[in-house]
C-alpha cells in the first residue's frame, strides 16, 4: 500500500525522485512502450475492433490498470515513487506548481510550441519523442490554445458529473447523453462545449497531449491519476450504482464484442473491470 499525493503537496525531494525515475524509464526505452500501448488502444467509435480505453465504459478500469503498470515500472527504478495527481480545478493556470522548472517545465514557445524549460525539454538531451503520430522529436505544449481559447474545467463541471447517478448507458460510446463516464470523459457532439472535463484538459495543455500518444507528455499521468480519484469519489457518492454494462451485450446489440462488461477481460492484460473497482489494495489518495 502506498499513497498518491496531490502534486502541489510534493516535497522538493519527492519531485526530484519522481523526475529521476521518469528520466530513467525514458533512457531504458520502457517509457516509450507505454506511449505506444496507449496509441494502440486508442480506438474511436468509427473504427472497427474492440474499444477498451476510450469512448467506452471501460475507460476508467482500463486506465487504472494502465497507470498501475506504469507506477510499477517507476517503482522498479525507485520503490518510494508514486504518481501524484493534478487537480486542474484548483491548479488551473500556467503559474501552477506542476509547471515549475524543477518539475514538469512550462509552456511551449511561440511558433513550434517546443517546451524549453524543465527536465523534459528536448534541449536538455533527456527527452526525445520517439513514439509519435506526427513529426517532431521534442515535447510541445500550447496552454489554453490562444488562437481559439479553451479554459480548464471548473469544480462546478466536475461536481455536475459526480452527481450523475448512473455509471454509463447505451449506446456505450462517445454519443451517450447520460451517465458519469461520458460526462467526465468529456465527449459532446458539436457546440462550444464539445470538449469537457477529461478531454478539455488534454486540449488546454495542447501539443502532444492532443493525440493518441499523449503519454509523451509526463503530465498525462498526473491528469489520469486525478481522473482515477474522481472515479473513486463517484463510487463513494453512489455506492449502489455499479459498473455498467454488468453483462455481456447480446449479439443483437451493435456494440456486441466492442465494449467490455463487468466480467469481460480487457486487453492487453486479460483483466476484468470487476477486478479493478477497488483501488485500496494497491494505493490510497491523500
Offer a quick outline of the entry.
With 286 residues, this protein is mostly helical. It is built from seven helices and two strands, in the order βαααααααβ. 31% of the residues lie in helices and 2% in strands.
Write the topology of this structure.
Layout: E1 2-4, H1 12-28, H2 30-40, H3 59-77, H4 155-162, H5 180-185, H6 197-205, H7 219-237, E2 283-285
Parallel strand pairs: 1-2
Helix pairs in contact: 1-3, 3-7
Explain this structure to me?
With 286 residues, the chain is an all-alpha fold. The protein has one domain: di-copper center containing domain from catechol oxidase (Orthogonal Bundle), CATH 1.10.1280. It is 31% helix and 2% strand. The chain has helices spanning 12-28, 30-40, 59-77, 155-162, 180-185, 197-205, 219-237; strands spanning 2-4, 283-285. The protein has a two-stranded parallel ribbon with strand order 1-2. The model has no long low-confidence stretch (mean pLDDT 93).
Which terms summarize this structure?
two-stranded parallel sheet, 286 residues, di-copper center containing domain from catechol oxidase, mainly alpha, 31% helix
Amino acid at each position: 500500500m502506498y499513497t498518491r499525493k496531490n502534486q502541489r503537496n510534493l516535497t522538493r525531494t519527492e519531485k526530484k525522485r519522481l523526475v529521476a525515475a521518469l528520466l530513467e524509464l525514458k533512457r531504458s526505452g520502457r517509457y516509450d512502450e507505454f506511449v505506444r500501448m496507449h496509441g494502440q488502444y486508442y480506438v474511436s467509435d468509427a473504427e472497427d475492433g474492440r474499444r477498451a480505453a476510450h469512448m467506452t465504459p471501460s475507460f476508467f478500469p482500463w486506465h487504472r490498470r494502465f497507470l498501475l503498470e506504469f507506477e510499477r515500472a517507476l517503482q522498479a527504478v525507485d520503490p518510494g515513487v508514486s504518481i501524484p495527481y493534478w487537480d486542474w480545478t484548483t491548479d488551473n493556470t500556467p503559474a501552477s506548481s506542476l509547471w515549475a522548472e524543477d518539475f514538469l517545465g512550462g509552456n511551449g514557445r511561440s511558433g513550434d510550441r517546443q517546451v524549453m524549460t524543465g527536465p523534459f525539454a528536448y534541449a536538455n538531451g533527456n527527452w526525445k519523442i520517439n513514439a509519435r503520430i506526427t513529426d517532431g522529436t521534442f515535447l510541445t505544449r500550447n496552454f489554453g490554445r490562444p488562437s481559439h481559447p479553451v479554459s480548464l474545467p471548473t469544480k462546478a463541471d466536475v461536481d455536475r458529473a459526480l452527481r450523475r447517478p448512473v455509471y454509463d448507458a447505451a449506446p456505450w460510446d462517445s454519443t451517450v447523453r447520460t451517465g458519469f463516464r461520458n460526462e467526465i470523459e468529456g465527449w459532446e457532439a458539436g457546440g462550444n462545449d464539445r470538449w469537457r472535463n477529461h478531454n478539455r484538459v488534454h486540449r488546454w495543455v495542447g501539443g502532444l497531449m492532443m493525440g493518441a500518444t499523449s503519454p509523451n507528455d509526463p503530465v498525462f499521468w498526473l491528469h489520469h491519476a486525478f481522473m482515477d480519484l474522481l472515479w473513486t469519489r463517484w463510487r463513494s457518492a453512489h455506492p449502489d450504482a455499479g459498473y455498467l454494462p454488468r453483462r455481456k451485450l447480446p449479439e443483437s446489440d451493435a456494440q456486441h464484442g466492442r465494449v467490455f462488461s463487468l466480467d469481460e477481460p480487457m486487453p492487453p492484460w486479460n483483466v476484468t473491470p470487476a477486478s479493478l473497482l477497488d483501488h485500496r489494495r494497491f494505493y490510497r489518495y491523500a
